[in-house]
Amino acid sequence: MNKSDLRRKYKDLRLKLSEEEIEELSLKIANNLLKLKIWDFEFYHLFLSIAEQKEVNTEYVLHILQGKDKNVVVSKTDIKNHRLNHFLLTDTTRIIKNRWDIPEPEGGIEISPEKLDLVFIPLLAFDKTGNRVGYGKGYYDRFLDSCKPGVIKIGLSFFEAEEEIKEMFDTDVALDYCVTPNRVYQFKN
Questions:
Q1: pLDDT tens track, the chain, 189 positions
Q2: Residues of the domain holding 56
């Protein structure tokens, strides 16, 4: 399938999920993450879920990270420059929703993408080789391109892998892992 068809398909599938299903599936994803040997790093980037888009609820992942006393970094969208800026999440960080309902830090201690060890990535679909489809604006591709070589990229998905995503571009950044409620996919990139 091509990217636009996959976006339509998976947005529709997510819209059919109830709040209870989202919570149950998100908890299963967090539990599957615990099976990975990824918990010895210092800086973890976590997306804050857009409830209106019925994204994976990353609150469970946040609790794991906080319980392990990790540095959690979250993004703020810079619409003008089509970039993400990254801030350390602290006890005093104020989170507000922007005009697209994206929860973002109001400000705080800015963290360079080069400091990040691992990035959890929102997505709509992914395939068996680690290619992914997001919302189509390229924010995460540009962000991941600015991270240090070897940063671990983990997608979180309610759904299993597609066989193949057509129309991939040179600027598309593939995943190292994708975690679903039922399994952990590991890719050779």
A1: 899 999 999 999 999 999 999 999 999 999 999 999 999 999 999 999 999 999 999 999 999 999 999 999 999 999 888 899 999 999 999 999 998 899 999 989 999 999 999 999 999 999 999 999 998 788 999 999 999 999 999 999 999 999 999 988 888 999 999 999 999 999 985
A2: 3-186
Task: Give how far Cα 151 sits from Cα of 19, 71, 175, Å.
Answer: 32, 15, 10
Answer yes or no: is 108 a known binding residue. Answer: no
Say which CATH number the domain at 69 has: 3.40.50.10420
142 known ligand binder: no
For residue 14, say whether it is annotated as part of any ligand binding site.
Answer: no
The beta strands (E) that lie in 37-175 are given as 43-45, 71-78, 83-88, 95-97, 103-105, 118-122, 125-126, 132-133, 152-156
To the question of whether residue 109 is assigned a binding role by annotation, the answer is no
The total domain count for the chain is 1
Residue 38 corresponds to which amino acid? Answer: I
138 is in an annotated binding site: yes
Binding residue per annotation — 177? Answer: no
115 is in an annotated binding site: no
